[in-house]
Amino acid sequence: MTYINISMRNQDRFSNENNTNFEPYSKPLKNRNYSLDSICWPLYPFTLWMIIILSSCSNRKSDLQFQDVYTLDKEVIDISASEIFESFQIIPLETKEIIGEINNLIVTENHLVILDNAKTKSIFLHAIDGSQLGVIHPLGEGPGEYLFPASIAYSEQEESILVYCSLLGKIINYDLNGEFLGEYFLSGESVSDLIVFKGNLYMTLKDGEGRNILGILNYKDGREMEKIPLPNNGFKVSGIKPQYIYKSHNEESFYFKDIYSNSLSEVNMTGEIIGQKTFDLNKDYITDWKGRSLRFDEIIPEIQARGYIVITDEFIDSEGYFLINTEEGKGSGGMLLVDKETYSAKPVRNIINDMDGLYSYTSILGNSTNPGYFIVSMEPSIINLRLDQMEVGLSPYLQKLRSAGLQNDDNPVLIIYKMKTSIESLEK
User: Fold this and answer.
1) Please, what are the domains in the chain?
2) How many helices (H) and strands (E) would you count in the chain?
3) 301: pLDDT confidence band, cut at 50, 70 and 90?
4) Residue 37's pLDDT is what?
5) Each residue of 154-191: b (16+ CB within 10 Å) or e?
6) SS3 labels along 243-297
7) For the residues 156-161, what does the mean pLDDT come to?
8) Which position among 31, 88, 172, 257 has the lowest Cβ density within 10 Å, counted as fewest Cβ atoms?
9) Which superkingdom (predicted)?
């Protein structure tokens, strides 16, 4: 099998020159000037009085520096991939051991970490070119073993993979060779999601009352986990495993989102909620569902019956904009393309693929929400079917894709689109 690593920049998308650089985007967030120093002083005594009140009420866990409200545009748009993506790569995953299903994917500068908890109950480690480096699957109940790997996190700096086993209630630490480094047993909490930031493990927990808690754990020194309250919708939903936390584009903070919430809370490294992004959609559903315990199969019919537009669990951050999935009352899902500068949220019907020419996209796939990257995984059989249907002039990479020799029983192929920092069409 031939391994290809295609990277195409937007301005060169109709040439045959490849750019194989693949560096995660990382730039500081623009200064929003939301500090108290920037308040308009003609408000005089009222403003001063409010500053005193706010200062006295602030605390470590809820020091809001900004609160953005995004308004939904009525016009539904189609947008070209080349308008929002800067470049892309096509990465066939080497087939030494078969990946049954990609349930979670972590992309870093050097590695791809893949969780398959549906079929093989394994964690696959690949290099960024797709070559398979190793597989972790120590099934059992002893030290360093798990029964069901519910979630994973990866530290590029520490070169360690952390696995949460929901059935044994523990978090296990492995090195890149799959060697057992240590484990941490939880005290009855249910972990919903976890990420690694600079030596600490951040996880969303549910207590016995269903309340959201942020757990911060230094998984190397064995200290007791710090627990911090998080926002709560006031209703419960069972039957799905939602994602709750998402890294920001600069990876200096992360976002927390309760299931079906219309708000994202930005949280810094110490657990302080420093900002909030709220979508001015249907606020009624938050009120209607408060105090209720809902099953997932009840949610969609109610959304459709009441005509709600609801924010779901897939979110990808970039510097100037972000993408987030929606569920709509008319029975279809979609995406919002949200401009951070103008505070507009445009409903997107299709991302028309004018880059690699394979398929257009209607939503973010749920198995990967890495900041700055829109990632698609496809079975080789689906790609080969599309290649047979494509005209020669449709994609400058058609011949390279065909010559890759993808076999239908090979591991999935990743298509990784790097998001632009800003979008000109949104600024008009």
Assistant:
1) 32-427 (2.120.10.30)
2) 7, 28
3) confident
4) 32
5) bbeebebbbbbbbebebbbbbebebeeeebbebeebeb
6) CCEEECCCCCCEEECCCCCCEEEEECCCCCEEEEEEEECCCHHHHHHCCCEEEHH
7) 89
8) 31
9) Bacteria
pTM, full prediction: 0.83
The DSSP-derived string for 33-52 is --SGGGS-GGGHHHHHHHHH
Query: For tokens 């301005």, what's the residue?
Result: 11
Task: Note whether 278 and 286 are within 8 A (CB).
Answer: no
Q: Is the pLDDT of residue 395 over 90?
A: no
Question: Encoding tokens for residue 183?
Answer: 């484990």
* CA distance to 16, 387, 428, per residue, from 400 (Å): 10, 11, 37
Do 205 and 227 form a contact (C-beta atoms < 8 A)? yes
Q: 10 Å Cβ neighbour count for 97?
A: 14
pLDDT tens-digit profile of 242-287?
678 999 998 889 999 988 888 999 999 899 999 999 998 866 777 8
Question: For residue 139, what is the DSSP state?
Answer: B
HSE-up (13 A, CA, CB side) for residue 128: 15
pLDDT of residue 29: 28
Computed on alpha carbons and rounded to an integer, the radius of gyration of the chain in Å comes to: 22
Residue 69 β-bridge partners? 278
Burial of 140 (0-12, 13-18, 19+ CB in 10 A): exposed
Among left, alpha and beta (phi > 0; psi -120 to 50; other), residue 46 is: alpha
Query: In Å, how far from its chain's centre is CA 223?
Result: 28
Q: Which residue has the higher pLDDT, 254 or 209?
A: 254
- Torsion, Cα of 52, 54, 60, 62 (10° steps): -170
The amino acid present at 399, given as its one-letter code, is Q
SS3 385: helix
Q: Scanning the structure block, which residue is given the tokens 């494509």?
A: 390
* DSSP-based three-state secondary structure for 164: strand
Considering only CA atoms, which of 340, 294, 339, 333 is closest in space to residue 314?
Answer: 333
- Pair of tokens at residue 81: 């991939």
- Distance CA(45)–CA(53), nearest Å, equals 12
